[in-house]
Amino acid sequence: MQVRSLLAAMAVTALTTTLGTSLGASPAAAADTRTLSGPTTGDPDAYLTFVGCDDLFGSPAATAPRSRINLGPYSAPLGRRSLGLVPTSPGTATGPYTSFGALTELDASLSVAATGGSQGVSWVITVTPTSPRGTAWTGRAAVSAPAGTWSQVASSSQTYVWTLVDLLSGAVLGRAADGTPAAFAAEHGDGPGFAVTGFGCDGRPFNLDAVRGAGTTFDFEGVQLSTSIDVDAPQVRAGEKVTVTGAVTDGAQRVTGDPLVLQTRVPGGAWTSADAPVLADRDGVTRTAVELQETTEIRWHRPESQYADEGWSEAVTVTVTAPADGADGGPTPSEAPTEAPTEQ
C-alpha cells in the first residue's frame, strides 16, 4: 500500500505540474550528453525509477533493484561501460522516467542488453483536454530485449493498450483503441504527462546505456578514482626494506579498497610490476614491504576494474646508500686483524 500511495502521489504531482505552466510553457531543453558514474541523474524531468510490470498503481509492490557499473557488455553504445541492474525479484521494471509537455513530443529511448534476454514494460501516463479531473490515460506496452546484443527501445514507437483510470484509486473508467502515442493523441487530443520504460520483469539482470529523456542523453561510465602512495623512509641502506602504503579514493574522498600492484624501476629505467596485486586491509589501506639494493622509484598501479579505468599513483624515489660497515662480514675499524703467532 505504501508503494501504491507513493506512485499515486507521484502521478498526481507530475500531472498537476504539467497541466500548469511549469512544463507546458517551458522551452525545450537543449540536447546534450551527460556522463554519469551511477544511477542518479540529478534531473527532475529524467531519472531512473522502478515500477510494477502489470499494474502501475496496484499490487504487488515494485521493489528496487541493485545497480552497478559494468564494462560493456559486448560493445557499449556510448563509451566503454553501462549501468548494470539486478532485480531483487520478478515483477518490477527499472528504467528511465521522462516527463513531457505534449504526448506528440515524447522523446524517450534507451539501449538495453541482457546475456539471457530480458522482458520489460513501457508505461505512458497522459492527461488530454477532455480527461475528467483526477483521471489520466495510461498506456501499457510489453517490450523485450533479445540475448547477446544491444537493442534500442523508443517509447514513441510502441503500441500501447490505453486505459482511463482514477489517479487516487486506480479504478478503470474507460478504454481506448490500442495505438502509438501519436495515434492516441490524434484521436483523443494531445496533452502532458510522463513515460517510464524499463526491464527486469522476468527477474533477469540487464544493462542500460544511451538513455535519452527530456532532451538529454545519459552515458554511464566509470568512477573517477585517485591513488595515493607513501613510504616509511625516503632513504635506506642497501639490503634494507622500505614499507610502501597506498589507498584508493573516489571523488568524495571515500576509500574504496581497490587492490594495487607495486611497480618499481631504477630512475629512468622501465617499470617492473610485482607478481600479484596487494589487497587492502579492513581500513582500505594497501601495505607491503620491499627490499632495495639501489636507488629506486616506486609507484602503485591500479588495474582496470568493472567500474573504473586503470590508474597510477605518483612515483616516489627512495635513495639507497652503501651498507653499514661490516654488514658484509668484513672487518670494522674497531676490529683490526690480528697477526698470526710467530713460530719458535
Please provide a written account of the structure.
This protein has 2 domains: 2-220, no CATH class; 226-321, Immunoglobulin-like, CATH 2.60.40.1930. Residues 1-30 have low confidence and may be disordered. Strands 1, 3, 4, 6, 9, 13 and 14 form a 7-stranded mixed sheet that branches. The chain is built from 2 helices and 23 strands. The protein has 344 residues and is mostly beta strands. The protein is rod-shaped and about 95 Å long. Residues 331-344 have a biased composition (Low complexity). Residues 1-30 form the signal peptide. This is Htaa domain-containing protein.
Helices and strands, in N-to-C order? HEEEEEEEEEEEHEEEEEEEEEEEE
End-to-end CA span: 113 Å
**Which outline best applies?**
rod-shaped
Tally of separate helices: 2
- Summed up, the domain count is 2
Give the proportion of residues in helices: under 10%
> What average pLDDT do the residues reach?
87
Signal peptide: 1-30
Biased composition (Low complexity): 331-344
Organism: Nocardioides eburneiflavus
Keywords: Signal
Structural key phrases:
mainly beta; disordered N terminus; Immunoglobulin-like; 2 domains; single chain; 344 residues; 2 helices
Short description:
By secondary structure, the protein is mainly β. Helices cover 8% and strands 42% of the residues.
